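Board notes, transcribed. Complex of a protein with glycine.
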Amino acid sequence: MTYSLNNENKAWLDEVWNKLQAKMSAEVDRVGDRIPYIPVDGKYREDKSETDIYWWTNGFWPGMLWQMFHATGVEKYRTAAEGVELRLDKAFEGYDGLHHDVGFMWLHSAVANYRLTGNERARARGMHAANLLAGRYNPRGKFIRAWNDDCIGWTIVDCMMNIPLLYWASEQTKDPRFTYIAKDHADTTLTNTLRSDGSCNHIVILKPENGDFVEAPGGQGYEPGSSWSRGQSWALYGFALSYNHTQEGRYLDAAKRIAHYFIANVSGTDFVPLADFRAPAEPVVWDTTAGVCAACGLLEIANAVGELEKPLYLNAAVNILRATDRRFCNWNSDEDSIVAGGTGSYHGRNGDFEVPIIYGDYFFIEAVLRLRGQDFLIW
Ligand code: GLY
């Protein structure tokens, strides 16, 4: 897909791509096949393959590496990504540690590998992950259970980004069961999670025996009923992806409704999102990761709509990316991480508050490569 950019945006894109290549080349030399998450003093010190192999973000570093390999052909990205994929095998051994986030973990590692290289072992890993995700489906409630322990009827909006693993599994096996599950879950999310104004709940608890709505407690946003911005971006991009895989118009309609709500909110803060669009005015809490994820979703919507509608989504995506670059990107190749200002959760103070977080870098790279027509669909 190519996008029509004016000369100023083209020049910015060329410049940012040059900086990305320098930064990622230095970073892969330092990090290799360890699994980074959040840097401390400009360095990735923690290796999640040692501290938490089940952590939901463990696929984003290999996702960055596969995107870079696809765009540049430079072998060291592929070598490091293959190394991470091997490390992730340890997570398959401990069933109880895995949640619905197997999509985030294996779409960006094994499935990306299979898509680009045809590696059969990688395909098997992807299918194993897809079967784990399908195994979380509740056929009476018609939803995929998010978390373990006593969260039996819990669904979360993030899962919209995990279900592309199921679309991939159906495509691979020619067995529609995986897609049936993905669509049931997307439809349950449409009914219970998406609100009429285009905002979304984060968590929705349903009765496991019949899927009836129980409650929508607060999650990673400010409070119940508020509007956690990364949750909005998961929904925006997730529904756009469900449209891509199914061509069912209700998913594109949902993605557009969420996008209009997102654009309206982000345009009030110079195109960098607050961590929650319905938090009190003070303190100001940013979450750049919501912006860069939404930018990818907006570009996905731009691909799906007609010529006259495209600029709305394209321009919003470019505005978000340029504002993020101007205000939050670190292009010093001696330091790890790119996009600062990411917030794990509004009330969280666990070292993930307005800091660079690995998925912010992933979505920034994907968005830049989308604009250059050099990405591949990892979802
Ligand atoms: N639970 C995934 C996220 O923090 O967005």
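The mean pLDDT is 97. Residues 275 and 287 are 5 Å apart (CA to CA).
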